[in-house]
Amino acid sequence: MSRIKSYRLGRSSDNAIHLVEDTVSRHHAEIVFMHSGDLYVTDCCSTSGTRVLRGEEWEEIRQDFVRSQELLRFGEFEVLAGELKNIMEMGFLAWVRAQASAPGGKKVLDDSKGLKRDPGTGELVEKD
Question: Which of 10, 16, 59, 103 has a C-alpha 20 to 30 A away from that of 96?
Answer without folding.
Answer: 59
